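## Example pair
The file below holds two records. Each record gives the amino-acid sequence first, followed by its structure token line.
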Amino acid sequence: ELKAPLEEYVNKRYPGLVKVVRNQKREGLIRARIEGWKAATGHVTGFFDAHVEFTAGWAEPVLSRIQENRRRVILPSIDNIKQDNFEVQRYENSAHGYSWELWCMYISPPKDWWDAGDPSLPIRYVA
């Protein structure tokens, strides 16, 4: 039921900028992202989950870091938005990693990263 209204909204709001890509059948999140990536024509491709909220100025540091090194994988700083009053609760910056059991972990960056004082700097590795 969302098919036509969604396409109309996207075409009106973002003409020539955003495409709606549909699979022939339900294939799951990762296959849907792969098909979206195949259809993408821009210089940078981003994947965002439905629950993601963007703050003003989010794109500039991300695109700057990608421009410096196109092989970078950019991950967000994750904060919490309180459901009762929409207040943003900032969380400490962290790197994303995985345990041997493949559980996602949030790892505090090394001291030299904190000392640099720029939260948009890349974290090359976490020891």
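Second record, same layout:
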Amino acid sequence: MKIQQEEPNKYIKELTQKKYKYGFVTDIHTDVIERGLSEEVIRLISMKKEEPEWLLEFRLKAYQHWLTMEMPTWAHLRIPQIDYQTISYYAAPKKKESPKSLDEVDPELIKTFN
């Protein structure tokens, strides 16, 4: 497919707005942490995941190191700066009591995996 030089953005826009024929979305209740990355967020994620203390300490040390890092310039890319405070770093299905039979499972969830 040949794309006109003056219309590459139009082609990209059309392509990215098409529905992905192999994709799907299942609407379920989720537990999401607000956007942003901080020591507090890392501690909260670790608590929610019930991680051992040594892993939390490892993550906090890695976060402190990451704060000192700069975006590499060797590739000479012209890309916008990433705003890490606009990203949510944790989302998981809300915890419920486990179903005792498939009759208790959300039909939308069953449909997703059938």
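Notes on the second record: The longest strand covers residues 30-32. The beta strands are 30-32, 91-93.
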